[in-house]
Amino acid sequence: EGVGISTVCVMLLRAVADAVRPPRALLVPFRHGYPLDAPGNPVKQHAVIEAALRVLEDAASAPPVLAEYVP
After folding, report:
1. Which residues contact 44 (CB under 8 A, 6 or more apart)?
2. To 5 degrees, how large is the angle CA 71–CA 38–CA 53?
3. 33-66 pLDDT, tens per residue?
4. How far apart are alpha carbons 18 and 59 in whole angstroms?
5. Cα angle for residues 36, 15, 32 (degrees, 5° grid)
6. So what's the pLDDT on residue 59?
7. Is the pTM here over 0.85, yes or no?
8. 3-state DSSP call for residue 28?
9. Is residue 69 a contact partner of residue 29, using CB atoms and an 8 Å limit?
10. Judging by beta carbons within 10 Å of its beta carbon (0-12, 13-18, 19+), is residue 66 exposed, middle or buried?
11. Would you report the helix, strand and coil content of the chain in percent, each value rounded to 5?
């Protein structure tokens, strides 16, 4: 971020996001170890990635941004 490259973290735990305070985070409701949802399901995985990219598109939001993913 400091050199102009925007980032989004996909995070499983709100407590960690609150402690670390990344510039942008997408909080997901999945099991530990599965931040993109079920393995072998590219449709669901792409949906999570697209949601993370939408967090980047919202130029009106100043960091830190915590967005929640709802499947």
Report:
1. 36, 37, 38, 71
2. 50
3. 999 999 999 999 999 999 999 998 876 677 889 9
4. 21
5. 30
6. 64
7. yes
8. coil
9. yes
10. middle
11. 30, 15, 50
* Residues 63, 61: Cα–Cα separation, whole Å: 6
- Amino acid identity of 27? L
Tokens (6 digits) for 46: 């792409």
Phi-psi region of 4 (alpha: psi -120 to 50; beta: other; left: phi over 0): left
Joined together, the tokens standing for residue 71 give 């499947």
- Counting every residue written for the chain, the total comes to 71
pLDDT tens digit sequence for 3-36 = 888 899 999 999 999 999 999 999 999 999 999 9
Q: Which amino acid is at 31?
A: R
